[in-house]
Amino acid sequence: MTRNQINRLEMYQATNSYLDSNAAVWSAIPIINTYKTAFVQTIQGIQETSQKQESAQVYLSTSLRQLKHQIAQKMDILDDTLEAYAADTENSELLARAANSASDYFRLSNEDFEIKTKNVIDLLDSNLAAMADYGMSEAQIEEVKTTFGLFQDMRGTPRSYRIQSRTATADLVSLFEEGDKHLSRLDNVLKRFKRSAPSFYTGYTAARTIVNH
Distance of CA 6 to CAs 13, 94, 116, 159, 213, Å? Predict the structure, then answer.
């Protein structure tokens, strides 16, 4: 990759990490989940393509521990919805399986973390239609599946889920054009937080800034 591409990739990763860390602010809005999932898929495509180049050693990678923490935070949010649905329907078995906090996930070994996360995602999938009135959407689940796939890639374990619309091209220029397009869409939908969550929006715009090394 060129120095400019490396700088842009670092910005992509910083932006994605910031959104993951603040998922509670935006995760209930399906279109943001959709754009975010496409953005993460493009980042994956860039990483896979750049691994074939020597300069790929320079770009920043999210650590496995950071990624695990981000997934745990996302699962905590989804579990809350599943738990509310289980309580309302008096489904004691589902309630017991849904009562998980972010720390419940994060403190597990990586192997157990994968098993638990997949099991709860499968529960979310199987109850998706019934939870529509609770604000649960397919886009929310697909977004966490995508991040979970990154975690499994970093661990060298087989992916649990096949990503629906994986970026196919291996051309870096095209991939960065795709990345910029996804970010532009995110910019537009996240403007709604300028007044309702100004500190979040300020942090987002800061993460979106390219730092030239």
Answer: 11, 45, 35, 27, 9
